[in-house]
Amino acid sequence: MQKIAIVGAGRVGEAAAQFIAQNDMAREIAMLDVREGAAEGCALDIQETAPLFKFDTRLSGSTDPAILRDAGIIVVTAGIPRKPGMSRSDVLDTNVRIIDEIVDNIMRYAPDAILLFVSNPVDVLTWRAWKRSGLPRERVIGQAGVLDSSRMAAFVALETGLCSCDINAMVLGGHGDSMVPMLRYTTINGIPVDKFLDAQALERIVTRTRGGGAEVLALRKNSSAYDAPGAAVAQMVEAIVTDRKRVLPSVAILQGEYSYPDGAMGVPCVLGKNGLERIVELDLNASETAMFKHSMESVLADIARLH
Ligand SMILES: NC(=O)c1ccc[n+]([C@@H]2O[C@H](COP(=O)([O-])OP(=O)(O)OC[C@H]3O[C@@H](n4cnc5c(N)ncnc54)[C@H](O)[C@@H]3O)[C@@H](O)[C@H]2O)c1
Ligand SMILES: O=C(O)C[C@H](O)C(=O)O
């Protein structure tokens, strides 16, 4: 059991904190936000659910980055979400300034932590944080694929009417409109999904998965998704704190894997106590390779905008 810090006590930060606390993954959760009272209020509100959910985690909040000290894992959700009609890349210029400052504070107060980025555009900001911090790539990862895969599995469950607990979906690539839903690796208790659904239904699932974030945003209007993103963060945190060696799609810095000497994108990763312990390289077919390339090109175009 360790101390986990969450930077950004907004909607995603709060949902992640609630799931992490409720499932007793941390001895302590420290929330940090620049908005006066936001982190403190979030911490207290969640603390008051402890008797209901029977957890022991102690929560605290502050505007002072010194609260990060001794954190073993730091989840970064700080930054602005996009508004309806925007792409995730449209918030890059604002969020990179926020992330740079946070990374500098992390290096000052918790340089030994494992960093899990959520703020968008997540692939680009994970890469930026890795570069700026100088940390090994094993300790700088991002959350996207767990959420996108859960969305895809939910859509398979809705289309088939089958139990979502039997469905395993996999989404790789960048967390943008050109993400790569991997139908070939999507199964229902080991049975390929195309045994249950025709080509049209599968195409509907791919399209809906790619637009999953935008669909929730269009409905909520004033906020992008946070319940499923918070749960996805908690699943990655759990894999690390319990050293379970789970294979989860994660944003990873690529250094030759999938033929990319540099960049960051969602690939299957083994997560354990050291953070990213291994990248699993799949044999992609021609169409998957083309989708992967297209997705990486859009991430690299955003990385090229950074200076
Ligand atoms: N990777 C994913 O799958 C995924 C999923 C959902 C949301 N997101 C992204 O996560 C980010 C947060 O979304 P949200 O809905 O929680 O937004 P939000 O507006 O509810 O919360 C963001 C919080 O960040 C805080 N903040 C801003 N600058 C800060 C700083 N320098 N230090 C500490 N805190 C700071 C704000 O005060 C605010 O409380 C957005 O960029 C969004 O696009 C990513
Ligand atoms: O869609 C967004 O902007 C938020 C997040 O990336 C999501 O997929 O829900």
TrEMBL record:
Belongs to the LDH/MDH superfamily. MDH type 3 family. GO terms for biological process: lactate metabolic process; tricarboxylic acid cycle. The keyword NAD applies. Substrate binds at residues 82, 88, 120, 151. Keywords: NAD, Oxidoreductase, Tricarboxylic acid cycle. Its EC number is 1.1.1.37. The keyword Secreted does not apply. It comes from the Bacteria. The active site is at residue 175. This is Malate dehydrogenase. It catalyses: (S)-malate + NAD(+) = oxaloacetate + NADH + H(+). Residues 147-303 form the Lactate/malate dehydrogenase C-terminal domain. Gene3D superfamilies: Lactate dehydrogenase/glycoside hydrolase, family 4, C-terminal, NAD(P)-binding Rossmann-like Domain. NCBIfam families: MalateDH_bact (TIGR01763), PRK06223.1 (NF004863). SUPFAM superfamilies: LDH C-terminal domain-like, NAD(P)-binding Rossmann-fold domains. Residues 3-142 form the Lactate/malate dehydrogenase N-terminal domain. NAD(+) binds at residues 8-13, 33, 95, 118-120. Catalyzes the reversible oxidation of malate to oxaloacetate. InterPro entries: L-lactate/malate_DH (IPR001557), Lactate/malate_DH_C (IPR022383), Lactate/malate_DH_N (IPR001236), Lactate_DH/Glyco_Ohase_4_C (IPR015955), Malate_DH_type3 (IPR011275), NAD(P)-bd_dom_sf (IPR036291). GO terms for molecular function: L-lactate dehydrogenase (NAD+) activity; L-malate dehydrogenase (NAD+) activity. Transmembrane segments: none annotated.
